[in-house]
């Protein structure tokens, strides 16, 4: 069996996925390689995008905190590159992005608790430490925020694992190492 994963082109995916590729082209200007890789499956790309774009109690900038901390904890080169770029577009400085990747945010105590929790959940495979959880709630986060954070950790972990398994080329600027 060939275990090499090439990025499928539009003509190599189903009609359903071709329509999604067209929408991604319109919205983003390109189809990210990781999204194209999901399209090997008839359903995975749509399912992933629906889950990833679902309503949440976390704001966009807060979601990037989780995305960065999880991607660093899982050492996903692709997602670190993508979310470093996205976090920059959402107003984070390069220094803040490096901190968030490390599961910290010295510039904001509430985001620090979120980054630490996301890192803790990921590294401990869901066996969250009482200290991380207590600090999260002490900073004003709610149980709804906790559930949405856990969902987002799962969302990002799926893509981290997809890239680490397929090793498709990174099509974002490479993130500098911590």
Give the topology, please:
Layout lengths: L14 H14 L4 H6 L5 H9 L7 H14 L3 H13 L4 H8 L7 H15 L6 H9 L4 H24 L12
Description:
There is one protein chain. The protein is an all-alpha fold and 178 residues long. The protein folds into 2 domains: 11-52, no CATH class; 60-166, AhpD-like. It is 63% helix and 0% strand. Helix 4 (60-73) runs antiparallel to helix 5 (77-89) and helix 7 packs antiparallel against helix 8. The termini are far apart. 37% of the residues are buried.
What's a quick, concise take on this entry?
The chain contains nine helices and no strands. It is mainly α and 178 residues long.
Q: Which short descriptors sum up this protein?
A:
single chain; 178 residues; mainly alpha; AhpD-like; 2 domains; 9 helices; 0% strand
Rg result: 17 Å
Count of discrete alpha- or pi-helical segments spanning 4 or more residues: 9
Flag low-confidence runs: none
Give the distance, in angstroms, between the N- and C-terminal Cα atoms. 36 Å
Task: Please outline the major beta sheet.
Answer: none
Order of helices and strands: HHHHHHHHH
